[in-house]
Amino acid sequence: MDIDQQEHFRFWEQVRLQDIMVRKAQLVKGERVQNRMHSSYFLGVRKGSVLVVLNQKTYSMNSFEIMHVPAKSYIEVHAGSEGAEYIFISYQAECAAKESDAPLIWDKSRYPTHITYRVIPAQPMLLYDLTDRMLELQQQGQEPSITFQIKALFYQWIYHMVDQFHSQLALVKTANPVELVTLTLEYMLENYAKPHTLDSLSEVMGRSPGHLSNCFKQVLNRGPIDCLIRLRMQKACTLLTESKLPIRMIASTIGYQDSYYFSNAFKKYYGISPQKYRKHIMEEDIISFGGRNHIVGISDPCYIPFYDNDNYYQYLDGGSDEMINRIKRVPMALLMAFGLLLSACSGSSSGSMGASTGEGSTAQSQAPTTQTNNSSENTTNGTDQAITRMVHTSMGEVEVPSNPKRVVTDFFLGHILALDVKPVGSNGLFMQNPYLEERVSGIEDISDNLEMITGLNPDLIVTGDAQTYSAYSKIAPTVYLDSSAPVRDQVKELGIILGKEAEASAWLVEFEENLAAARERLNRIIKEDETATVFAGGIVKNITLYGNAFTGRGIHGELGIPMNENVKREVDPKVGWATISNEVVSTYAGDRVFMAVDAKAESFDYASDPVWKTLDAVKNNELYEIDGYKFYFSDPISVMGQIKDIVDMMEERAQENSARK
User: Fold this and answer.
1) Backbone angles phi, psi at 57, to 5 degrees
2) Whole-model pTM?
3) Which of 164, 232, 544, 573 allows an S-S link to 121, with CB 3.0 to 4.6 Å?
4) CB contact set of 68 (below 8 Å; sequence gap of 6+)
5) For the chain, what is the largest distance between any 2 Cα atoms, rounded to a whole number of angstroms?
6) How far apart are CA 251 and CA 239, in angstroms?
7) DSSP-based three-state secondary structure for 175
8) Distance of alpha carbon 187 from alpha carbon 39, whole angstroms
9) Alpha-carbon 217 to chain mean position
10) Is 288 left (phi over 0), alpha (psi -120 to 50) or beta?
11) What is the pLDDT of residue 267?
């Protein structure tokens, strides 16, 4: 969305928000939900990852990512192997009459309420805290005072969402360890009293625990939890010195709910209890930092004193020149606030015990392993990677390796595997594709994380997301492909991009041969004038009706089983689906019915339902329940697998029906 930030704020200022509704839900492994809402709404993923199909376009969303969905959109949300938790915030927005010389001048199609955009917030917990407060109020009833409070909170939510949307490219989509450390320190400075772990901090920053910890080690030579402990101890010293608050209140103020635990932590850090520290301060009236050195007992500084500006970051003892250069880029005020000014490169300060117990050795050992592998790979394949060629794409000419060895892709995992190329990284949701489960071992889950992608040292990135193209291009040569294009066209184009034209041609020949064989098998089963209909949802009030797209792609498109004439009239080919009431299914049901369901969790007794039992397909035992999750994927391997599954299922049913006669 290319709307200026101030224009964005001005728009929200001039609209009237109403009918605000918050919903939170959980999805189990492989579960799918479908929704069509008249209001605009925000979809936020709180935990896990999901695949989102929005108006025929596919998106991958991970924890703490938010998407705005325009009104009257159709959306499907598919959970991955670990399930997911998500929220909906729906709302109605109307342009408010306003006496102003600056009326809304945008084309309506560019209204923020009418377009789809994604937000990867730098501080997601701020947004989700507001969401939780709205949800709590909503559960209290619909009194005017509560409705007013919800609206006030939603305006706050909008403000922070817009602010973080316009800053996400600069803040979140960076692979720079210094910027990540700076952002994390700023977050901890504002939220040091909250309960934090390495996992919770990494979630807030949208990074893996191992990556966040490694960045802190690279920049500050200590972990994030050690920095948090230092900050809390600094705050505790200030409160002990400048206030008469009891120890239990000081502990609670800086994030320790147990005063006994706080006292032990303070003594472990400074070598003296909080009570004795306060007593000593009162007796000696020590107010300068220098006067407290004999109490604090930290190790000797590894920098020339900060008053020597020219040589402030000069290395004296420990650390490395590269680390010093990184530290120089962290704001001085942050280093001072965390007590890191004199000990940022010291590996054995009095507070180092906290880091050793708070970080976790497993997470910290991940990065060196990746670097070793990458180094080996680069040495081995350096000759091949030096040869490049130009390929034409919708984004222009792109220089790519002639023989790429370390390919990363978000959407096209199955396509690339079909050409006998194994990517080094891909989106975990596509790696859970049942048709690919025996082919994905050793592939890293990138989860749309730029730092993870950078760590894999790719020589080529293939993406289906135009919004991330620019960010990916800064890491490695990047090619964008239309994820909604016909699978044959995608295979041909990837064959050129990967230098696998021969493999692409061979796959196309094999696919057509297998498809011809499948159609020949079907001709022995179905009659020439028989039709089929593809539904999704089971016995529910509103079900989805598919044409020659999505789940209907293989059945109607590849296998060529004709649709019911009413389906042709109802389903717009440009949309590919429609929602109908189950009361009118008989109008659209063909001689054979395919019902996409969550195969692992549900199955329906159609013969006992008053509506469904009237269908000829049910009476003739020609209703087939198929796994909606398996039939979601559209890569060449999956399409071939779906075709085989359909024909096998219909042959088995034909034999079963024949045996009954």
Assistant:
1) -110, 140
2) 0.54
3) 164
4) 40, 41, 42, 43, 112, 115, 116, 117, 118, 119
5) 102
6) 10
7) coil
8) 34
9) 25
10) beta
11) 87
Radius of gyration, alpha carbons of the chain: 30
Q: What is the rounded CA–CA span in Å between residue 505 and residue 495?
A: 8
Query: What does the block give as tokens for 25?
Result: 């839900």
Distance CA 252, CA 478 (A): 50
pLDDT tens digits along 539-561? 988 899 999 888 899 999 999 99
Pairing of strands 425-426, 396-401: unpaired
Q: Is 271 left (phi over 0), alpha (psi -120 to 50) or beta?
A: left
**pLDDT in the model for residue 244:** 85
- The residue with tokens 């050195």 is 293
CA–CA separation, 84 vs 112, rounded Å? 27
pLDDT, tens only, 396-428: 889 999 999 999 999 999 999 999 999 999 988
Provide the H-helix boundaries in 386-423: 413-418
How does strand 117-119 pair with strand 15-27? unpaired
Runs of H (alpha helix) within 620-635? none
Q: State residue 355's pLDDT score.
A: 35
| Type of residue at 337 | A
Q: CB neighbours of 17 closer than 8 A, spacing ≥ 6?
A: 91, 92, 93, 151, 154, 155
CA distance 543 to 580: 6
And the tokens for 482?
């239309």
pLDDT of res. 614: 95
For the chain, which residues score pLDDT lower than 50?
100-105, 169-174, 286-319, 342-386
